[in-house]
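User: For a benchmark we're assembling, each entry needs the component sequences followed by a predicted structure for the full assembly. Here are entry 17's components. Please fill in the structure.
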Amino acid sequence: MGQLSLYHFLALGAVLFALGVFGLLTRRNAIGILMAIELLFNAAAINFVAFAKYVDPNGLAGQAFAIFIITVAAAEAAVGLAIVMLIYRNFRGIEVDKINFMKW
Amino acid sequence: MIHNGWLIPLFPLISFLMIVFVLKKNQKASSYFAIAMVLISLVLSFILFIEMLADGHAYHKFVNWLSWSDFELPMGIFIDPLTAVMLIVVTIVSSLVHIYSLGYMHGDPRFSRFYAYLSLFTFSMLGLVVAGSYVLILVFWELVGLTSYLLIGFWFEKKIAADAGKKAFVTTKLADLGFLLGLMLLLFAAHTASIPELNELIESGHAPMTLIGIAGILMFMGACGKSAQFPFHVWLPDAMEGPTPVSALIHAATMVAAGVYLTARMMGIILVSEAMATVVATIGAITAVMAASIGLVQNDIKRILAYSTVSQLGYMIMALGLGGYTAGSFHLFTHAFFKALLFLGAGSVIHAVHTNNIQEMGGLHGKMKITSITFLIASLSIAGIFPLSGFWSKDEIFAVAYDGGHYFFLAAGIAAAFMTAFYMFRLYFLTFTGTPRDRHAYDHAHESPLNMTIPLMILAVLSVCAGWWGIPWLEHGYGSFVKFGHHAHHAEPNIALMAGSLLVAGSGIGFAYLVYRKKVISAEAIGARFKPLYKLLYNKYYFDELYMAAIVNPTYKITEIFFRFDQVVIDGIVNGAAKLTLWWSWAKERFDTYVIDGAVNGAGYLSLAIGRVLRRTQTGQLQTYALVVFIGAVILIFMKFIRI
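Assistant: Structure for entry 17:
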């Protein structure tokens, strides 16, 4: 077992991203989709932090981006949950495959 | 008055306008107004004539009528002794015809219109006489032609009268073409159409004489048409279909006199070349002899007189062609009176017996003494019996031919004179003497009313006396008044010639007396002996038939062809254009419907069709969209690496 390298982090990010995409495309529950999106955010944040650590150890840009992502994710979760609430009120459910009134 | 000569034609014009616009409903007023106006013209003409006798100088006044660049066309009056004489002749004859028509046209439904036409006719002729430029002459010339057409065809209900008017108009119009061409050539060659200027130009000799000569011949053609000279004489006998007073006016003073007057006016031009003068004289001689010979065998009283007019006009033209300006115009002067008298007398006879055929008359002397005696005077005068006016003027013409050594023309003149004497007295004897051949017509015959016989008597006096003005022994006679150039015409009185002409006239009358009065010689026997000649003369040398075959029928043929051409080609083009337009608009309609509308609707349909396909992609499924976004992102990333 050697030391932790950049590729380990990238691999972790990729796995998280793949899980997020899978969840996004497969979950019927709107809350689940929001959670999958959170996974995508965090995959990206891990990548930023990993690149910051290994590619530019003296810089703070990577960490700053990670902070931004967390902030945006929080705001997104707030807005997303509000939308879900409204969907629930209007459709008596939060299964996204049922909210297809925008189709042709 | 000389300086105000333009006033003279004005009064008949006023009369014409008044009748047409104001008086036409009132027959009496129309006729009396017309007579009053023409009498004013008569008085003014006499005043002018007397002044001209005292003065003797030609007067002319021109105003500029038309000018462009350096060309000027003045209009005005030209009054010389010939004008003065013509004014007298025209106004006297016209006045008498106006008065005579009161009786002759009595009861005609278009009485007022008749007087309107008479006034217009008189106006045209007077205007023609005082006109000072050939252009102005042409204007009045055509007016004369128009009014003669109207008057000859006055009884247009009769097809024959309408046809006669048409024939007169077309024939003279054909000849007028020559006048018009000649006038254009004259304007081109001499740059002036004014009579005094032209005369000066020719006298000075600084003019293109050849061109002017050709112009003269062409203009003479117009004169031939109006004066019924060979070969344009065919219209005049047919013109007899008009009312008889009109015939008198046409034959004596207006229409036919216009041609002789024009020829006299063109004397300067005619005498430019020997050849042209000979042409003029020859045409005159041919006409004189030919017409007289036709007159020998005709049976219609007016037609005989018509041919006699043609023949006498031939005399005048012949005299003018031989240089006899004085002789020709003098014969025009005297002829006007006795020919007017003959026609008015014939009208009186026709009025009484209601037929034109002399074979149905006879013995009328007892019934209508005034008409008979005045007719006899006129006949003697036209035959050339001493001392009546016809004798002096005819003798003047013979003297011109004799003095100039033109024996051929002298012979033609004498031959025509013999025939004239014969046919006039054939006419007289058949009409007024012997036994009535148509009892019914004879019984109803009566003398005409006074307003018809008084003009006859006045004309009878003039027929006797008018010629005395030209007696060769007279010191200040006609010859010193109406003369060409500056030298008075002084023909030496030739007693032998006078005796000869008297002998010829006498023998003509005597021959007629033997045949038609004493019946010593049978007319039928002579006719049978010279049957081909008789037929030739009776059918007027077949001129009408010749013209019919040579001119009229080919014209009809050509018009037929043109008609077909019109029908087939012109109508075809017109209809074809319409059809083409229809077809074209049909095609355009199709184009609009299918191409333009097709494109517009097609764009709509296309959008609809594309939309119909593409809207399938809008599933409304959130995750489908997410999948598309994801696949898109993957594709973009791959593109980054693969670098397409």
